[in-house]
User: Fold this.
Amino acid sequence: MEDTYGRLISSLAVENDKRIVLLVMDGLGDCDNDGRGTALQLARKPNLDSLAGSSALGLSVPVATGVTPGSGPAHVALFGYDPLVYQVGRGVLSAMGIEFPITGRDVAARLNFCTVDSQGRVTDRRAGRIPDEENKRLIARIRKGLKATAGVETFWETESEHRAVLILRGDALDDNVGDTDPQATGVAPLRADRPPHDSSKTAKTVEKIFSQVRKILAEQPKANMILARGFAKTPTWPTFAERFKLKPAAVAGYPMYRGVARLVGMPIVAEPTTAANVCTDAAEALADHTFVFAHFKYTDKAGEDGDLAAKIARIEEMDAALPTLLKAEPDVLIITGDHSTPPSLRAHSWHPVPVLMNAPYLRGGDGERFDEVACRGGQIGTVTAKELIPLAMAHAGKLEKFGA
Amino acid sequence: MEDTYGRLISSLAVENDKRIVLLVMDGLGDCDNDGRGTALQLARKPNLDSLAGSSALGLSVPVATGVTPGSGPAHVALFGYDPLVYQVGRGVLSAMGIEFPITGRDVAARLNFCTVDSQGRVTDRRAGRIPDEENKRLIARIRKGLKATAGVETFWETESEHRAVLILRGDALDDNVGDTDPQATGVAPLRADRPPHDSSKTAKTVEKIFSQVRKILAEQPKANMILARGFAKTPTWPTFAERFKLKPAAVAGYPMYRGVARLVGMPIVAEPTTAANVCTDAAEALADHTFVFAHFKYTDKAGEDGDLAAKIARIEEMDAALPTLLKAEPDVLIITGDHSTPPSLRAHSWHPVPVLMNAPYLRGGDGERFDEVACRGGQIGTVTAKELIPLAMAHAGKLEKFGA
Assistant:
């Protein structure tokens, strides 16, 4: 796949001192929650609505029609990278999720503790969802029992319940390693070095390590084995700074989002979690950056919890905090989500995400409200998420003319 | 060309028991017919309009902006296959149109009877549009007069007027065969085995057969030769069932549409032609399928006949029949056309096609009417036809999340 649009934008990018803010209210988009309405429709949000009157509105498709994105690809897209071209492996996302300081020499994999029977066949892929404490105890056991492998350092990290992360560090490691998770019970874990992975030195190393782990855990009544999937190296992408000629800063309170920011070389300047702090920290970061990514998690969390009232409350919190950010007078302010998280679905969804862009050179303001229905008729139309930063750059005079 | 979107959707597809119906009113879209209005605007259709109030609306582009599709590619797109990647040869479409039971060993071509002068130059590419009976008489003559060719069976079939279909059957046949139709008069038919087709054994066979045909028809006053175009093999595509993990059924009364359904491995479970029977048979098929394609031909036919009143009447028929289908309670119901067929144009057109999608997790209903103008403001927006099934699958919970 080619990143035609990204290369075009990159070739046109020029530096100036205009400042762009991308404020992401995670999981902002919604459906009508069985007729009750969307959280944006129901929230009392005078600042956002008033801003809509002098802003462009639109809808953004994170990945493609009908496709529900994870947080990783959804943010990759918002950062202006085609999420189908710039894919992040599962293992790397897991490492980012626990904020493991992953390096270019690392290969990461997502682990499950599982239970196997006396013949070594998986009987429970999640080992009865063991509690975090049990997970930590078993991880300590592995760390202690494992013999050193020449040239490879291993890091074993608890995530939660049955979930853990393995990071292999060494020179010339590759990620041509098979998932050992058979995605089924009644069968043995798969070999990491089975074809077509048999050419991989790393796969052979993993296989040796896992047979040690089997012995170390053998006496456990359950959670007596591990399953791995998504072995992946940190991708080496063009940095955000070089791609867009912007000086970026990330303001994000949750590990996953700091992780994605780091993937594109965006320095983390603050780690706020409340709406008030997100806006204060973003305003501050504007003093010496031309691009600020500010992330607010709780709208998504409320959606995942199926709590429409909480989602409304979180939007209202952000609305109240917004004047602090507006006072810093960003030249272009994008307010959007990375994806939709409807409370009635209790999960991420495929629905296009509302976008508000306050910027110079608009075709008037798009109305009195910021919500899914108003955005549908807005001047931005329906675009893909990766187009938002280029559009903001255009409004900020940061894109040269194409051709003479 | 790559089928990036299709592969993405296919990689995310999961099976569940939710049921999707795609009801195609052929040629449904319209233009304003010289100011009179579109058929959908003029029809009295209380059921469709009421359904719009609890459905998503939008417009669908069959192939690309400005491009008028044939029935083949239009349905290929509706079935979720990129019509530019998944192309069907003219010969195969012709064979499908007469419902010839084409196999994987066949190469099919569309034939015209033509008239040539004493020097063998084409004087009339359509032989004065001879009547069907004359066509059948000549086809019988060819069948009788033709000597057997080792290893190749031939099937000669009348279509209508000057049109016929040739099917070659044999092992290792290829479709690297040149059109013999010069698309002009005053020149001789082209050779099937001219460069770059001179490497094709099949082209040489065709050339030998056609020189026999010339002798067999030599005494005819007109229609004394044939012209061939669109030599093509049946494509081998991923089946609809494996691509989308759906259990499909086709309900279609016309050969062409059954043919396209068969191309994607969709079994034909009923062959109704009236609106009432289409709805009854589709409802029945829902009992043991997770996807039903139901096709209604007459809206297109009325458009092709330039008969706006008839097109309106056909829509009203379908509207009256609809409750039968609704009673079967499909989880997602798409009602759309494969393309537009405006009566004032008397032909297929390029206009985007109205789409109605009744499904859970909507952003409210999109209004009080189902027509081209209402659809323009709907929540689906303007999408390509190949995106409709993935979108329906999303609403039916049949697509996993992309990335973590």
User: Anything to note?
Assistant: The two ends of chain B are 28 Å apart (CA to CA).
